[in-house]
Amino acid sequence: MRRAEFWQTLEDGRIQCDVCPRRCRLKEGQQGLCFVRARQDDALVLTTYGRTSGFCVDPIEKKPLYQFLPGSSTFSFGTAGCNLVCKFCQNWHLSKAREASALSGSASPEAIVQAARRAGCASVSFTYNDPVIFLEYAVDVAQACREQGLASVAVTAGYINDAPRKRFFAAMDAANVDLKGFSERFYRQLTGGHLEVVLETLRYLVHETGVWVEITTLLIPGENDDPREIEAMCRWIREELGGQVPLHFTAFHPAWKLMDKPPTPLESLQRARNIALDQGLQHVYTGNLPDAAGSTTWCAGCGLALIRRRGWDILSYALDGAGCCRKCGTRCAGRFPTQAPDMAQRGRGPVRIL
User: Fold this and answer.
1) DSSP state, 67?
2) Cβ–Cβ under 8 Å, residues 190 and 88
3) Does residue 257 have a pLDDT over 70?
4) DSSP characters for 78-134?
5) Ordered strands of the 351-352 beta sheet
6) CA 168 from chain center: how many Å?
7) What is the pLDDT of residues 267-323, one digit of tens each?
8) 20 to 30 Å CA-CA from 72: which of 58, 196, 282, 317?
């Protein structure tokens, strides 16, 4: 339990949480929609501080981040709850759970950093549920990481207000932001949120911070896979963020309240990738289904395969210590290790710690 940041007392006596655009207004004992920010003793508290749903050592590529410390491991954890109500949530057992039923572990920020170092991880990732709702805990862990030379990664939907946005991302080194669709209808009906908030988060991250950013869009048949919508989204990314920002199209599998939708076919992912490339995006990936071309990082200068992958394994690596193509010298956007990853590793996958 910890006193929360970003709230105010209203004239009618209710407390308003100002972390996200929902601005939940709470009477004594009430929780916000996220379940984890609650009013107690006339203050807003984070009820899940120091409590987690467990820990896992993951390939960084699983986040997915393909151009941030490729080949490294990240120490992943989350809590419970969410400030969106996505009908297609892939982690619904955590994001839709009330904290008491989902949290099995506890750890201080310092303990998490020590565990990450023992596991040989280069970073700690806040994932499984959206870390903006446990902002205070995530920021404290990220600050402890920075003191010990570890990077911090946020996997987020970016649904956060301006002031907490600045506070949260000032502590992060990389972020994968879910751009869930590119229409207000999609956001309103399937997530309970609003598109423009997420677009503003992306603008802020790319233009006002040093955070490395990659974007993920889960393609859902019949909902956000219209080629015209994808084209408009990719055009916006190029014009507003720049062509070097990586974009991942990932396959939907029926989950939560969208069990009636079919899985995304590989052809839809490949079509979306081609649209993005035609719109001038340089690094476009496909995920959740095997696709050699869509899992490779290609040189924007000469077209060389810079990083070939199979699943989360790296098969070949053609970047020098400065992150430049060994053939033509073009620098690849991203954050790369000074030494090539160990390509002898095979079968890299999640390892559950708790």
Assistant:
1) S
2) yes
3) yes
4) --S--SS--TT-TTHHHHTS-HHHH--EE--HHHHHHHHHHTT-SEEEE-SS-GGGG
5) 284-287, 247-251, 212-219, 174-178, 151-156, 123-126, 73-77, 55-59, 351-352
6) 13
7) 999 999 999 999 999 999 999 999 999 999 999 999 999 999 999 999 999 999 999
8) 282
This prediction has a pTM of 0.96
The helix/strand count (H/E) of the chain reads as: 9, 20
Residue-averaged pLDDT of the chain? 94
Place of tokens 């229409």: 183
- pLDDT, tens digit (0-9, with 9 covering 90-100), for 85-144: 999 998 777 766 554 555 667 899 999 999 999 999 999 999 999 999 999 999 999 999
The token pair that represents 74 in the structure block: 């990240």
Please report the DSSP string for 140-191 in residue order.
Answer: HHHHHHHHTT-EEEEEE-----HHHHHHHHTT-SEEEEE---SSHHHIIIII
Amino acid occupying residue 159? Y
277: left (phi over 0), alpha (psi -120 to 50) or beta: alpha
Interacting residues of 278 by C-beta distance below 8 A, sequence separation 6+: none
242 secondary structure, DSSP code: -
CA distance 158 to 165: 8
In this structure, which amino acid lies at residue 326?
R
